[in-house]
Amino acid sequence: MAKKVLVLGETREGSLRNVSFEAIAAAKKISGGGEVVGVLLGDSVADFGAELIAYGADRVITVEHPHLKSYTSDGYGQAFMAVVEQESPEGLVFGHTAVGKDLAPKIASKLQAGLISDVTDIEGEGADAVFIRPIFSGKAFEKVKLKEGIDFITVRANNIAPLEKQERSGDVSSLSVDITNLRTIIKNVVRKSAEGVDLSEAKVIVAGGRGVKSADGFEQLHELANLLGGAVGASRGACDADYCDYSLQIGQTGKVVTPDLYIAAGISGAIQHMAGMSNSKVIVAINKDPEANIFKVADYGIVGDLFEVIPMLTEEFKKV
Ligand code: FAD
């Protein structure tokens, strides 16, 4: 049976997040030839509708309201539920982002629906779709299927390939929703790390640990990351030592990332760190201790001093 699937399109700093396009590709599979409807919530988001359609949404619904300028679970919850009531979908797909992780359980509980979170792949289509997600901090994968009700999933960034961007036609309509009784109203957002590539969606991450030894030491990681069009990440050891901000922390209590390339410099490979990066496609570890745990998950290991290796890599990449 073909299904109607709603996809939450997420914007960040004036553009759509890539995970929204990946969510559309996931929704296409769940729909099994049915309809994929993009949903945009914000104070001024209608202009993003055409881009969601270019990535495969059949049509887009926008809900615009001054109280939706910044995410709040109350505001987005009310707006999204209004779209659900209008559309009666058989599937819902959100990115497994900070917003998706917060909003999806709220919507699932309102709909009394099951929720499969952090999906990294989908086998089959339509009613036969089976969802694959990591468990035990990425050590194993399970295949899950909901027995009944709405197929509601969140998708991990950088795992499900988006459809090719093409000129496609589709309707962008707006739904007027009265956002009331908010417990939180966000007046202003101050970001600590507003610049550069978004760590959770970066294709290349250069991460540093306690072995980087200082905030100045992180400068060379930034240089290499910039050269590769990537982002800088860190172990908790490095954050605790105040070499960098906690917003860069990767791991069990930090961000979970799946870049194409993860360069770990001066990181020992504690299980809590690996929980956040071990599913990266290619892992390069640089550590002066040949017994370091990080080498167990590395595709390429460089035993050496990062203060020699990182500048050498930077110089070589400059030649490419
Ligand atoms: P270290 O373990 O001190 O390793 C430093 C490494 O640098 C060593 O392997 C050393 O050989 C190498 N080194 C030193 N100098 C050089 C050099 N010049 N060149 C090359 N290599 C060098 N950690 C996380 O990262 N993320 C989390 O989300 C997280 N969550 C946690 C949650 C809980 C509940 C707990 C208890 C811990 C958590 N931790 C987390 C902490 C984790 O257990 C480790 O303490 C931490 O990851 C260690 O960071 P590190 O690898 O940078 O430091």
UniProtKB/TrEMBL annotation:
| UniProt: FAD binding residues | 210, 235-236, 249-253, 266-273, 287
Please indicate if the UniProt record lists Flavoprotein as a keyword.
yes
Q: Which Pfam families match?
A: ETF, ETF_alpha
**What is the protein's given name?**
Electron transfer flavoprotein subunit alpha
Limits of the Electron transfer flavoprotein alpha/beta-subunit N-terminal domain: 5-194
Organism, as annotated:
Planococcus antarcticus DSM 14505
Q: Which cofactor does it need?
A: FAD
Any one biological process term the GO annotation gives: fatty acid beta-oxidation using acyl-CoA dehydrogenase
Q: Which GO terms describe its molecular function?
A: electron transfer activity; flavin adenine dinucleotide binding
What does the cofactor section's free text say about binding? Binds 1 FAD per dimer.
- What family does the Swiss-Prot or TrEMBL record give for this protein? Belongs to the ETF alpha-subunit/FixB family.
Keywords (A to Z) from UniProt: Electron transport, FAD, Flavoprotein, Transport
Task: Name the InterPro entries on file.
Answer: DHS-like_NAD/FAD-binding_dom, ETF_a/b_N, ETF_a/FixB, ETF_alpha_N, ETF_asu_C, ETF_asu_C_CS, Rossmann-like_a/b/a_fold
User: Does the keyword Ribosomal protein feature in the UniProt annotation?
Assistant: no
